[in-house]
Specification:
Layout lengths: L2 E19 L2 E15 L4 E6 L10 H16 L7 H11 L4 H19 L4 H4 L7 E2 L2 E3 L4 H13 L5 E4 L5 H15 L5 E4 L7 H9 L6 E5 L7 H10 L4 E3 L6 H10 L4 E5 H4 L2 H13 L3 E5 L5 H12 L4 E5 L2 H4 L8 E3 L2 E3 L12 H7 E7 L1
Helix pairs in contact: 1-2, 1-3, 2-3, 5-6, 6-7, 7-8
Bound molecules: magnesium ion (MG).
EC number: 5.1.1.-
Family: Belongs to the mandelate racemase/muconate lactonizing enzyme family.
Protein name: Dipeptide epimerase
Length: 370
């Protein structure tokens, strides 16, 4: 089986409401969708959501990189040769993990379709019975976040994820405590600072005030390059620390292990270049006694399904946050969310159907590589 043709689409997924985190406000979500076709008549889908703030990639640049570099390079290769495909992409260009992830995800979709199995059956099988997801709350005033949190509990969500990290750290502490007060003491609350606290000392002072609030973890309290600072925070506080932006490559993971800088890792296919490396990172984390989560850059059914297959296949991946399809007012796939769980279809590959008419409608520009 050989890849004979690639179609690249630049799309914008419209959001139900703007997504607000510490470093950006998104009115819509730009993404790149690729379709790889084989000489056996199969089509595999992949997705890239480049995040300029995290991996340094940009939507329009990623389009050109896929068009000029990665897609021409893999024409003629077998999607099963995933190590060789990554090796070829890495030889062409360093970094650019989201663009590489699009190729990787499409190759796994093709592998699954070729053998008639869901992707999780190729990478570890079903290690987890249920894949649940939290309600993600954007940064707002404490009373508004508290009100939205209460509604989420009424809707049946099993956990909350609060986005904070804007303004003074004390304002964030107020937001978090207001939500805890509103939802009672037992509802799991995860906090994502998205690098928003300005120093390890400021983070320690804020986290100290949260130690009695039953917070599941504090995610990425400080800037991503400061892994030593993350270790300092972890050594001085009693709330588990999750690394997100700080962990992109396997080298980052080794540094986090060396410095004992985190309890939990937020692995995202868009940071680590796809499924192939995500499962390796989860395995390395397991050896170091760390738990993992699969997160996302707010992806459609394509990227989200890929993340859920990885989560399904690993025992130490205990949580997922791939809620992109729930945030979009229009989408291209049919990944099934049933409060508070995601149900993978069990069909071959990613197990989703891509609606071609919808994809064409949301496409800003496209090209074909043969
Ligand atoms: Mg995060």
């Amino acid at each position: 089986m050989k890849i004979t043709k690639a179609t690249l689409h630049a799309v914008r997924f419209p959001l139900n409401e703007p997504f607000i985190i510490s470093y950006a406000t998104y009115p819509d979500m730009p993404a790149l969708i690729i379709a790889l076709e084989t000489d056996t008549g199969l089509v595999g889908y992949g997705e890239a959501v480049p995040d300029e703030h995290v991996t340094g990639e940009y939507f329009t640049a990623a389009y050109e990189i896929l068009k000029e570099q990665f897609l021409p390079a893999i024409i003629g290769m077998s999607p099963f040769d995933i190590e060789a495909i990554h090796s070829k992409m890495n030889a062409l260009m360093s970094r650019n993990p989201a663009s590489k992830a699009a190729v990787d995800i499409a190759c796994y979709d093709l592998m699954g379709k070729a053998v008639g199995q869901p992707v999780y059956n190729l990478i570890g099988g079903q290690a987890t019975a249920h894949l649940d997801y939290p309600k993600v709350l954007s940064i707002e005033a404490p009373e508004i976040m508290a009100e939205k949190a209460k509604k989420a509990v009424e809707m049946g969500y099993a956990s909350l994820k609060l986005k904070v990290g804007k303004g003074q750290a004390q304002e964030d502490v107020d937001r978090i405590l207001a939500v805890r007060e509103a939802v009672g003491k037992d509802m799991p609350i995860r906090v994502d600072v998205n690098q928003g606290w300005k120093s390890p000392g400021i983070a320690v002072a804020a986290i100290k005030q949260l130690e009695g609030a039953n917070i599941t973890w504090i995610e990425q309290p400080i800037r991503m390059g400061d892994i030593r600072g993350l270790a300092e925070i972890r050594s001085k506080t009693a709330v588990p620390i999750m690394a997100d932006e700080s962990i992109q490559s396997m080298e980052d993971l080794l540094e986090i292990i060396r410095l004992e800088a985190a309890d939990v890792l937020n692995i995202k296919l868009m940071k680590c270049a796809g499924i192939f490396h995500a499962i390796q990172m989860a395995k390395a984390a397991e050896a170091a006694g760390m738990l993992c989560q699969i997160g996302s850059m707010v992806e459609s059914s394509v990227g989200s399904a890929a993340g859920y297959h990885v989560a399904m296949s690993r025992i130490n991946i205990e949580s997922t946050e791939l809620t992109g399809p729930l945030l979009f007012s229009e989408e291209i796939g049919d990944l099934k969310y049933e409060h508070p769980y995601v149900l993978l279809s069990g069909k071959p590959g990613l197990g989703i159907e891509v609606d071609q008419a919808q994809l064409d409608k949301l496409t800003e520009k496209s090209c074909v590589i043969k």
